[in-house]
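Sample pair:
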Amino acid sequence: MKTRKWLINYIPTLLAAALILYFAIAREQSALKTLPTLVTLCVQLLLVSANRYAFLLGGLNALIYGAAYFSEGLYFSTVSAVLISAPIQLFSFIRWGKNRRTDNTTALKRLSRRAWCIVVAVIAAGFALCYFMLAPFFAGANYPLLDALCFTLGIVVSLLAAFRYVESQYISAVSTCLSILMWVMIARSAPENFNYVIISVYNCFRVTQAACGWTKTYAKQIKEETNT
């Protein structure tokens, strides 16, 4: 069991790191674009086990991502990373520290059916606001449709994760799939950005793993509370 867990946790990380470094060197990618992808490997690994330090490291890494996104003309993603993702993740780190259980894990929560409807409505309204009202202020942005949708989902995911909702990882899985599509399209015309395709695929794998892990952890916590 330990060997299987080690293989699942670390082999994909080492493989992704090797591919990222290979393509960074082969395509002469700048350190600004390479560094945040490597840090993300560690962030996602921590997130799988619902470790609150994933938010601390992720918040700092979001600032680096912001600079990289700006260089690619992804202005919605730039704003999301610097002004939204970084502050929310740092807030999440603090908040998760205040909701510790006796077994030193963080108490997780689930959305009600009504809350799910509200979240879906917020995503739809947020996307419409970004794409139809804010897009003119970001003239020249690349792939505004996908960028705006990933931007909206990213905010929702960050907020739900801050308040310890398991569903944050379900929505994040959708967001990472869209991110893969966006970066594949970008890499077709700018191959030096292929690292972002690699990290998006890796993120999708880890987020899916986190969704399963958080769901099991929540079920375990509820069972323990019921037995006590």
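The chain has one domain: 2-98+110-227.
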